[in-house]
Design a protein that fits this description.
Layout lengths: L1 E6 L3 H13 L3 E7 L2 H11 L3 E4 L8 H9 L8 E6 L7 H7 L3 E4 L4 H12 L7 H11 L15 H10 L5 H8 L3 H15 L4 H11 L4
Parallel strand pairs: 1-2, 1-3, 3-4, 4-5
Length: about 210
């Protein structure tokens, strides 16, 4: 069972997500919160596998929640999907840096939302090519900065990290490079270990910071 919680200041959004998740096979709805402080208390109490998190909440906002989770080893097992009204805004890159595993639009189809929870619970990132392209366009032009461990990557691993930053899946990258998905998966996994990346979303952040591109 995938244990899911929701944090959003709009009661109608929480109600809709709860109704959807409670009906989804293989999922357990463990609770909800209307603000950031309550969200942290909920995570500490229930330890969900996935938290669907609104960024713009009164008091302690979603970014502060993300940073608090990143700073607490006891909470890091919970993966965060930011549920937002806009595909890309000024919070997206900051949320990725703070540890978000992906983004989902509030008007996404029900099956997309359920699939998103399963994808993130399985350890993958939820980043569409459209979102990553806009993020790179918005923040990649600010120049590069040092990324610890980048010098340990092989040329192939650096190339694959750059491809991950396009938002493509292993299968899509394999098709572009005419190699097997298993080869892509191996190089990406090694790069994540060397860079100490929690998931593919963090690889996107590292690629943007280091100026890696395809």
């Amino acid at each position: 069972m995938v244990r899911v919680a929701v944090a959003d200041d709009q009661a109608v959004v929480r109600m809709g997500l709860r109704a959807l998740l409670e009906r989804a096979p293989g999922m357990e709805y463990v609770g909800e919160a209307a603000d950031g402080a309550a969200a942290l208390a909920l995570i500490r109490r229930t330890h969900p596998d996935v938290l669907l998190l609104d960024i713009r909440m009164p008091g302690m906002d979603g970014l502060a929640v993300l940073r608090a989770i990143a700073d607490d080893p006891g909470l890091r097992a919970t993966r965060i999907v930011v549920v937002t009204t806009f595909a890309v805004d000024e919070y997206v890159f900051a949320a990725l840096q703070a540890g978000a595993s992906g983004f989902l639009l509030k008007d996404s189809a029900p099956e997309e939302l359920v699939n998103a929870v399963r994808v993130v619970a399985a350890g993958e990132a939820l980043l569409s090519p459209a979102i990553t392209k806009k993020v790179i366009g918005m923040f990649g032009r600010h120049g590069t900065e040092p990324v610890e461990g980048l010098e340990t990557l092989t040329p192939r691993e650096r190339e694959l990290v750059a491809w991950v930053a396009t938002g493509r899946s292993n299968e899509e990258i394999a098709k572009e490079l005419v190699i097997s998905p298993d080869t892509v998966r191996t190089h990406v996994s090694r790069a994540m270990l060397k860079l100490r990346a929690r998931d593919r979303a963090q690889l996107v952040v590292f690629a943007i910071r280091a100026g890696l591109s395809v």
